[in-house]
TrEMBL record:
Annotated region (Disordered), positions in chain: 1-66, 171-250
Protein name (Swiss-Prot/TrEMBL): Fizzy-related protein
Annotated Low complexity bias: 52-63, 206-216
WD repeat start and end residues: 329-370, 412-444, 542-575
GO biological process: anaphase-promoting complex-dependent catabolic process; cell division; positive regulation of anaphase-promoting complex-dependent catabolic process
GO cellular component: anaphase-promoting complex
Residue ranges of domain CDC20/Fizzy WD40 in the record: 285-573
GO MF annotation terms: anaphase-promoting complex binding; ubiquitin ligase activator activity
Keywords recorded for this protein, A-Z: Cell cycle, Cell division, Mitosis, Repeat, WD repeat
UniProt record similarity statement: Belongs to the WD repeat CDC20/Fizzy family.
Domain of life: Eukaryota
Metabolic or biological pathway: Protein modification; protein ubiquitination
Amino acid sequence: MGINGDVSNGAALSPTMKRPIQESHSSAAASPRLSTPPPPGERLKVEPSHAGSSRNGRSSSRSTDIGLDAVDHALRREIGRQHRESTPGASPSRKRQRINGDRYVDFLTFFSSVLVADWSLIALFPRGLAKTSRQVSVSCMKMGRPRPHQDKRSGPRMGSFTIRELFENSIPQVSPPSMSPEHNRLSHGHATRSHTPPNGPPPSSLPSNLTPSTPHKNLFSYMSPRHSIAGHPTPSRTPQSRHGPNLDTRSEVYSLSPVRYGSQQLLLSPRRQPRAVSKVPYKVLDAPELADDFYLNLVDWGNANVLGVGLGSSVYMWNAQTSRVNKLCTLEDDTVTSVSWIQKGTHIAIGTGKGLVQIWDAERQRRLRTMVGHTNRVGALAWNTHILTSGSRDRSIYHRDVRAPDPWMRKLVGHKQEVCGLKWNCEDGQLASGGNDNKLMVWDKLSDSPLWKFSDHTAAVKAIAWSPHQRGLLASGGGTADRRIIFHDTVRGTVVNEIDTGSQVCNLAWSKNSNEIVSTHGYSQNQIVVWKYPSMTQVASLTGHTYRVLYLAMSPDGRVVVTGAGDETLRFWNVFGKRGGRMGEDGEGGGGSIRLQEWGVIR
């Protein structure tokens, strides 16, 4: 009766539903939403059965098909009614959504939703941030790791472009869940200890909007987007404003490019070009008998714009303005182990292999005095106005007042091996000393006990430089077994930063005009590197020496550096560019008043 009732109500038969009843039952159970409501005005017409069919229990073929279809349709309606009654919150008057899965699929929106989940997982697991970022950038942009000669800033630019295109102005931000004290206590327990799981359901580590769930409708149920203008679909009408139609030619409505206007501005924005540094020295001088000894300091550039070089047992002067060379002195039965100019004036200090310290007037080419005290070679010298400090292989440091008749005024003992690096910070009155015992010590003024003692290096500390741009910032470099540049805060006594250079650090010097530092290296690359501080990115890497670059000095104006190596050459590099002011006539390391007379060329 129920079947006849449904039939009499005019249920329509779909052409696709004429199949055996067993198949209809399985299809209805699997997908109850596939039934189609009968269109109005159509009635089911049942053909009368033949006379003999009732007696034999059989009907004709036509009536059999109609009866099976009617049963199939009635069962579908009953199952659909039960499904609607069992579903909570369903509205009986709710209209069926229109599904155009074969018309338009917005893959950009789909890919954005997937990347939102990945972005949230990255925020929840910060340890995998760098690796996942590289994987996403490689998979999205198909870009490999930039080569050293390529612009390394192209990666962040393309990453910003991709994020802007995918998320527009709404970049997902997911904060990681807070860890309870109990969770922290358990996480620090034994790694192999098993814990009893809680009775309740496990808490979800993902936000509620990212919890995966089974969709109750078709996955790709998209319609042609006609409601949005920012996402590039074609609008249904011309955008209007209160002054009339929107005629802004920069509007994305009229754009023919698949890239948004904001992304175009990002890609077209000018980039700051890196500073060009010449990779070739503008001058090369021969320096015969320049010692290939890591612990010596044989090159220094004075404030009078004269370069002093110790070669064997002699000291030579090179005038940067006239390019003339003169020999200052030759030691008898001794060798030159260090040279150092006073900050202001024409006096130069010379350390010898026998432990003597001589002071010469370079303008008059006259020796002023000889001071004793050390019992071995003097490899390091440093000036602080009228105070001359010397360090020796005998592990001692002497403070000498060149105005007093005494050979020394204070003796410092702290290093266990040869003292090979000395630098004064004249503004704060602090002295930094480095030794072959891998120690870096900071002495306050003329105190006989160190203020700070740093033991971070694992090799000899010869390279020492005080920053002229930041108070208390001290840079030091280690030898072959260390290869690091370490930055120290001498105000707090802490390590600020460090970088592994990959080769022996022989010398360090800060730029006077910019926050950059130059380092010279030995084994195994023999290069000169200019670093940008504090990022410690390489501005330039200069090569040319065939031996360790053991010596480094900077011109008074801070524009040129000169390097010396065991290959017995001095090379001049225009590294830091010109500074405002008049330079020398030939453009070679100007600055400073030239008080010294022109010397004749050595034959």
